[in-house]
Amino acid sequence: MRRFIFLSLIILSSVGCSSVPFQRTIYMPLGYVDPSLARQAFAASLPDRFQVINTIVFQYKWHSFAALGFIDANRELKTFAMSCLNPAGIKLFELSADKDSIRTNFILKELLHEGDLPSVVGEAIRRIYFDNVPSPEAKMQKDRYRVIFSEPHGVGTLKYIFAGTSSPLKLIEKRYYEKNRLLWSVFYYEYRQDRGKLYPVGIILRHYRLGYNLIVRLKEVR
To answer: Homologous superfamily of 34-221 in CATH?
Structure first.
C-alpha cells in the first residue's frame, strides 16, 4: 500500500529548473523613478492577509512531486496555515506557522519516512510570502533597469530586486546571503491584480545549499 501511494506522489524525473515555466520579466529603463516611492507603492499594493490556492511542485535532485496547496496567511503577523493534497485529493500534510515556529498538525504516515517534508515546505512558504518589502533603512542602489535594496536579515543579508514595465515596480527576486555566499533565491513572475492587490502568478524558490526547488503557480485567490 505504501509503495502504491508513493508511486502516485513521487515522480522520478530529469526535469530541472533550467527552463522557467513562467513569462520572464521584461526590463525597462527606470529613468527618473524614485526608489523610495517605488518601495512604498509596492508595499501598498500587497494584501495584508490573503487566502490562495496554488499548485506546488517540489524538486529535489531527480525526484519531484506535485501537490495542491491551500494557504491562509497574515503578512503583518507573519502567520500562516497550509494544507497540501496530492492530485488524487489525498491530504499529505497540514501545518501552521508563526514568525518563530512551524507546527505539523497532520502528516500522512507514509511521509514520516521521507524526512521532515512539511517543515521544509513551510519554511519555503515563509521565505516566499513574508519579508517582501525592504525597510526604509535598507541600503539602495539603482542601475538602468533595476532597483536593489539590501539589509541585514537574521545572521545574513537579504537583497530585494525590483524591476518591471508598469507602476508600481515589482519585486522580481529576493536573495539571501550568509558570509557573502548566496544560499537561496525567490523569483516572482506575472503579477496579477485581484481586488486592488497584487499577487505573483508564478514563483520559484531555489535553495542552493540544500539543493531543492519549489515551483508555485497561483490558481485562485479566495
So the answer is: Lipoprotein localisation LolA/LolB/LppX (2.50.20.10)
**DSSP states along the chain:** -HHHHHHHH-EE----SSS-SSPPPPP---TT--HHHHHHHHHHHS-SEEEEEEEEEEEETTEEEEEEEEEEEETTTTEEEEEEE-TTS-EEEEEEE-SS-EEEEEE-GGGGGG-SHHHHHHHHHHHHHSS-S--TTSEEEE-SS-EEEEEEETTEEEEEEEE-SSSSPEEEEEEEEETTEEEEEEEEEEEEEETTEEEEEEEEEEETTTTEEEEEEEEEE-
- pLDDT band of residue 114 (cuts 50, 70, 90) is low
pLDDT in tens, 25-40: 888 888 878 888 889 9
Q: Where are the domains of the chain?
A: 34-221
pTM of the model: 0.89
